[in-house]
Amino acid sequence: MEERELVEYFRAQIREDPDVASAVAAIRSLLEFLKRDQSETILGLRENMTKAIQRLEETDSSVAVSSGGELFLRFISLTSLEHPDLSQCKNVMIERGELFLKKISLSRGKVGKLCHTFIKDGAKILTHSSSRVVLKVLENAAADNKRFTVYVTESQPDSAGKLMAQKLHNLNIPVTVVLDAAVGYIMEKVDLVIVGAEGVVESGGVINKIGTYQMAVCSKAHNKPFYVVAESFKFVRLYPLNQQDVPDRFKYKADILKTVKDLNQEHPMIDYTPPSLITLLFTDLGVLTPSAVSDELIKLYL
Amino acid sequence: MADSDGRQVDGVNHATGKIYRLKLFFNNEGKELTKEEKQRLRKEKKQHKKNKKDDKGPPEKEKEKEKASVPAPSKPATQSPAHKAAPAPVHASESAAAAEKPAKSKAELRAERRARQDSERTSKQGKKEGGQQSASSKPKATPNELQPVVKRLPEHVQVDDPAALKKLAKKLERQQVRQIHSCDLPIVPLRSDYGYKVSLFSHLHQYSRKSPPTLQISIPATVIHPSIVRLGLQYSQGIIAGSNARSVALLHTFKQVIQDYSTPPNEELSRDLVNKLSPYISFLSQCRPLSASMGNAIKYIKKEISNIPSQCKEEEAKGKLQACIDSYINEKIILASEAISKYAIEKISDGDVILVYGCSSLVNHILCKAFEKQRKFRVIVVDSRPRLEGREALRRLVKKGIRCTYVLISALSYILPEVSKVFLGAHALLANGYVMSRVGTSQIALVAKAYNVPVLVCCETYKFCERVQTDSFVSNELDDPDDLIVTRNGKSHLENWQTVKSLGLLNLVYDVTPPDFVDLVITDLGMIPCTSVPVVLRVKNVDQ
Question: Mutate which of B348, B456, B532 to disrupt the A interface (most A C-beta within 10 Å)?
């Protein structure tokens, strides 16, 4: 399969189903790539996969694609250890790949089921930008006949918050859009903060749309719980020490990385929230404290 | 408490001690046990121990009752020949185990022991009212019941408790008496404390460098191998310092010991060698308390030795052990530092200002490697008295060509706004995520946290230890207080500190840093948060 075809397939996936997580779309494309792959040896197969993942990362520079790709690669390496014969290996890989894909497609539902019980009746929730997982959680809570109001930040520069507000409006949930600068102002009114994540790092911190760190610091100052909802395929083997330590390839959009020379003039799209500011993480592996994330990662990767 | 031979024999209130003494007496009578008999004895001992553990509750009461009745009939027991005669059984299990032993020894020794236990118990009861010594007696009972991962409080930590000191003395003696039957001199001397100890740390030993333990050893030191004596001296004089250096030196010395070892007839290498090593380890811990890394290395060696199959020939076994030790050093120390450098270099970016404290072999290695990889950074070395180890680190880094600044720890808050990262070494990583390192480390971490500077701790996994500690008082090391005396312009003001009754000099060696101050721990397994140390320990235990 040509790299061009791969990218096309990936983009098509996202177009057809805007609700799908980008990591799931990436893994689906990689699986398709695997099926159509013509290499003769396992080593060749792995090389092709690595190149394919790199290509996908260049298309969509989000952390989720990177983590999904790495997980898929790791899972393939494990399979290739058990079955040294290529054709047999490939069949097993494809079968397991389908299973894996099915499992992670269900993960959003699992997170939603776990988290909505933490939303009490009459709660006021603050969220940031547009996250499909948070939407699922709020959907589940609304279906449970709970009454709550939501405040969404506008989340510039792409105004994704307005999109979120629209979706919530369609679910008949009372929603208010606030300015990014008004987070400190609104914090005393809200009961809890729920945000999504693009990536969950080894320390238990999260990488998310820019403005999340600010919200976390404010909620810590006001002693409000700060919850993060993320699926397990977003766990990534990074360990940033501070904002500067997050690699550039995640901070900016893929096309900007390719065209712009001086990144100091560009504004980063994500920021890093350290684990000390996060109360709990809701994942399909369960409800975790930030320190437990490392435990899960060790189990996944070691 | 002397038996008929006039030799001091201990009485300890549990199965092994009792049976040990009986065995000793048996040996003394000139009967040579063959290998098979010894194995059978061992099996019986194990069975005995198991049974004793099962009925630990009732027998305590049983013993009390029988104590009153037994001493009377057993005392007049005459010197009957080596034969099974049982006028006074204590436990059915005990008598079964001791079936082969001469009755005279059993009865008489039991009587003596019971009398002594009585006196010990009453004195212990009096002590227990005080309340603080319960820890010293508890550890003896608990290790058998709890899982092997729980480490009991080492006896040498209870310095201000005379009962514990007595126990330690007995333990040392027991180890020697096992080896040499005729010699009366103490082979592993008990070092005496020096000078006034600050009350908070009075439970720790404080030795003077001017009185090394080797002064009290008899010549020729047939029980302690000469290279162990040399190693102990090097430890106590501070010639070998730093946890990696100490562990490597220890392992090399053990290689020498194994090389020179020859199995005595009718003994198994796997058991005898472990017994031979125990007095060496006691001696070394008298010279300088063992570090966590040394403890783990010793545990590994003992496990390897006891895993040697009995049919293995001696030369083959020795070769295997030497290879094991070599591979341990290679994997856990040398290759680990390569892996850690690889991860750490990712965290060093161009333009960084890195702060290091003291002299950690691992951190120096990382910085040298990063410099070789053409990273542009400069280093600030923080140093503190009395060891002034930072000078050694400074020397090594400057030799490489790295730009360095040198400050004393009192200038820390002045220099920290310039710093972008702090790299610290560790002596041990405790199971609750606390970092045990050279005194001053927690201060650096605290101030760095206040300035929001990331703190990275670099530590190999063999230094992870299962102990839990939340403060620096409960288990630490006190160095020679005379080190704090400084001579300036020909005057040393603290020279006569011992004459001033209210003055105490405190020279602490280690302190513990809580995990909230540490942002990242770099180990050979990867980069983990400080709270994941128990996960690594669990993974390691599963591996073994």
Answer: B532
Of B520, B525, B536, the CB nearest to A239: B520
Partner residue facing A241 (CB), from B454, B525, B526: B454
CA distance B302 to chain A (A): 28
Torsion on CA atoms B134, B135, B136, B138, rounded to nearest 10 = 80
Q: Is B79 helix (H, G, I), strand (E, B) or coil?
A: coil
Global pTM? Answer: 0.75
Chain A residue numbers touching B532 (CB-CB < 8 A): 291, 294-295, 298
Half-sphere exposure of B536 (CA within 13 A, CB side): 27
User: Has the ipTM of the complex gone over 0.95?
Assistant: no
Q: What single-letter amino acid sits at B163? A: A
Indicate the angle between helix axes A86-105 and A22-36, nearest 10 degrees.
160
Q: Decide if A294 touches B, using CB distance below 8 A.
A: yes
* Helix residue spans in chain A (DSSP H): 3-16, 22-36, 42-59, 63-82, 86-105, 107-115, 132-143, 160-170, 183-186, 212-221, 248-251, 254-259, 290-301
Q: Residue-wise pLDDT tens for chain B (544 aa)? A: 444 444 444 444 444 444 444 444 444 444 455 667 777 887 888 887 777 776 554 544 444 444 444 444 444 434 443 344 334 333 444 444 444 444 456 667 777 777 777 777 766 655 554 434 333 333 333 333 333 444 455 545 566 777 777 777 777 666 655 544 444 444 667 788 888 888 888 888 888 888 887 777 766 556 788 899 899 999 988 899 889 999 999 999 999 999 998 888 888 888 888 888 988 998 898 889 999 899 999 999 999 998 888 888 889 999 999 999 999 999 999 999 999 999 999 999 999 999 999 999 999 999 999 999 999 999 999 999 899 999 999 999 999 999 999 999 999 999 999 999 999 999 999 999 999 999 999 999 999 999 999 999 999 999 998 889 999 999 999 999 988 998 888 888 888 888 988 888 999 999 999 999 999 999 998 899 988 888 888 877 777 6
> Could you check whether the bond before residue B386 is cis, i.e. omega within 30 degrees of 0?
yes
Nearest to A242 among B454, B525, B539 (CB): B454
Residues of chain A with Cβ-Cβ distance to B519 below 8 Å are: 203, 241
**Residue B139 parent element (H or E):** helix B134-145
- What residues in A contact B536, CB-CB < 8 Å? 298
In terms of CA atoms, which chain A residue is nearest residue B422? A241
From edge to edge, which strands make up the β-sheet containing B435-438? B428-429, B435-438, B510-513
Task: Give the nearest chain A residue to B518 (CA atoms).
Answer: A241
Name the residue of chain B whose CA is nearest to A241's CA. Answer: B454
Cα–Cα distance, B192 to B207 (Å, whole number): 7
* Residue-wise DSSP of B362-408: HHHHHHHHHHHTT--EEEEEEE-TTT-THHHHHHHHHHHT-EEEEEE
What is the rounded distance in angstroms from the CA atom of residue A114 to the CA atom of residue A111?
Answer: 5
Question: At residue B493, what are phi and psi to the nearest 5 degrees?
Answer: -75, -35
Side chain identity, residue B362: L
Q: B157 in helix, strand or coil?
A: helix
Q: How far apart are the two ends of chain A, measured CA to CA in Å?
A: 31
How far A144 CA lies from chain B's nearest CA (Å)?
37
Inter-residue contact B377 to B368 (CB < 8 Å): no
Q: Can you give the three-state secondary structure of A245-283, one letter per residue?
A: HCCHHHHCCHHHHHHCCCHHHCCCCEEEECHHHCCEEEE
Query: Mutual orientation of helices A132-143 and A160-170 as an angle, nearest 10°?
Result: 20
Query: Which residues, 6+ apart, have CB-to-CB distance to B150 below 8 Å?
Result: B142, B143, B466
- C-alpha span between B427 and B440 (Å, rounded): 13
B181: Cα separation from own chain's centroid: 26
Which one of A202, A241, A276 has the shortest CB-CB distance to B347?
Answer: A241
